[in-house]
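Record type: ASSEMBLY
Status: queued
Input:
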Amino acid sequence: MTKFFQLLASGLALGAIYALVCLGFVVIYRATGVINFAQAGLVVLGAFMVYNATFTWGLSFWLALLVGMLFGAALGIIIERLVLRQMVRQPLHAILLVTVGVLLLVEPIVTTIWRSPQPSIDTPFELDKLEIGDVRILQISIAAIVIAAIVLAAFFLFFRYTKYGVAMRATAVDQEAALMQGINVNGIIALSWAIAGVVAVLGGAMLGANAGPKTGLGVGIGIIALKALPAMVLGGLDSPGGAVVGGLVIGVAEVLAGGYYAEFAPAWLKPGFHQVLPWIVMLVVLLVRPYGLFGTKKVQRL
Amino acid sequence: MRVRSSSKFLIGMLAVAMVAALAAPAAAGRKAPAETAGFDGETITLGVITPLSGRVSVIANPLTAGNEMWWAFYNEEEGGIAGKYPVELLKEDSAYAPTTAVQAYDKLKGDVVAFQQVLGTQITQALLPKMQADKAVAGPATLDATWVHNPNLVPVGAPYQVEAINALDYYVKNGGKGTTVCALAQDDEFGEAGLEGLAAAKKALKLKTGPSPRFKTGEDLTAQIQELADGGCDATLVVATAADASAIITTSISLNFETRYIALAPFWLPLLAGSASIADYLVENLWVSAGQLVAWGDSSIPGMDQFIERQETYAPDQTPDPYFIFGYLQGQAMAQVLEQAVKNGDLSRAGVLKAVSQIKKLTFDGLDGDYKYGPAAKRNPPRATAVFGIDPAGPVGLAIVGPQTVSAAAKKYKIE
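Status: finished
Output:
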């Protein structure tokens, strides 16, 4: 059982990061109806910004995280204003492709600015572990779970009880009706992008600091972040709660599948199968229940 | 008096005529090479295809700096090839992706005499068909034994397979007899090369082997490390580049996996030793097997003082780095090839290819073992490698634990 709990702990840490990144996808989707592929790019840029603040500017990890969040919020707003707003009333596929374009820009930008970065972002946790029986989990992974829980709880409170949260919900339901009610829809969309930027930086910083999959700092973070997409589809495209459940399920499933591959997988199944598992889950969900576990089922009047 | 001075004059004339007659064929052999792709009659241009960006840039950048330092020295103090043709490098970023590397090759091939550096086993494999068709020559910054007998390549150093065999031999002779040896290898040609070394060592040393999971660079390694932990691996051969080193070590620490990691040369990056959070684990668990990771600044190594003197003059900002030394060695090898090509009066691609086959032996001032050259089929690489432990205080973070030796198994290893 130790192995199971060990893998479960790793999966929860990975799932918490997926949930954070996934929340960014969901917020933008609710505000604009667009699946924002650039979210994965924001995760990468966020990680490197926090790295820059700690390594180059010498800030403490927590201060660097704060700087990174401000940067993420600003970057989200800038992308929305300079790029996405120009695409209003354009076909959906064109907007999707623009977000893919923004994502593709990130790698050359990052590798030009940070040519040979350190292997990971330094944190006060270093690689200290929490040991529960024979199960060990890195403290940075616990920090990722705790940060994800705090951020997600704060988001739900904001969403339910604040004026802006209500405005976001109204905008998500019907933009024109929200406009009629005096809601600054453009401002709400910009706010959504800022939130997406903040959660992306948090997810990126955790990945860069060796939480979850422990791959450290690099543009490969973007590939991991993209796996929040299956989590989003599983949870429901427009459901913040679904983002949490989807993220955790995908994270745990991926790590368990990897951990038990050698024991149970048939010989023809190549190693690395666990890496594609989230995408298989996404495919199945899209075929069976396209609105996900908690998403809104679209009803069309005929 | 008159007769004597006449005879003196005649003898003098005869001597001049003999010298001229003897010198004539040599002078004819040293005719200036014609202008060709990458040579404008004055400057020789070499190409570099390497991941200047991305995860593997941590290896490529110092390695390329080593290439550049060699040529800065050679141009300045030797006047370039044959004392009159300075060499310059044209660099293209491969991003460690074979498709990008192929594009870079197509872009550069018309502007270079040869390729000073092509980094990556998979990339070299992808470029070889084109190089063979173009009669192009390149220095692979990868140590796969596959390159040894390839006429288009100018490899230096002991192959990965030999690194693995020597290190496993050292492990067995130092308390590892009867234990379980596993492997963790990249899922590509580089990983394959390391596993070939393990297979050869298993046969020669009668090793008991355990699981050998593969991985794709950049992926979550929990599953693979867990598999090794479950497999009771006392020692684990790691065939990975520095790009994944941190992830492998961090995941091992997080899963409390204790093993004797034996890594091949591309795994090591000096800044790993400076990373406080993993340094203790590295000191306790990691050995690196390599031929070229010579201790930076160690005067007991022949050629080291000269190397340091040149580095301080031509690359004063360079911090100690094993890949920088490798790049320098590559420069030395290519210089010997180009000297031969100029001596032949032919810097065309075919001329350089011919020059490679005429080199009898590549030497490296003692920084690395001599490499027997000649026709590709007869090449024999140096087979001595050392085993390094981790010493965070050392210049490249390493200290020798097992001196440069050629194991009996490595000596017998047949390079196909």
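Annotation: The domain at 160-290+386-412 of chain B is CATH 3.40.50.2300 (Rossmann fold).
Annotation: Chain B has two domains: 44-158+297-382, 160-290+386-412.
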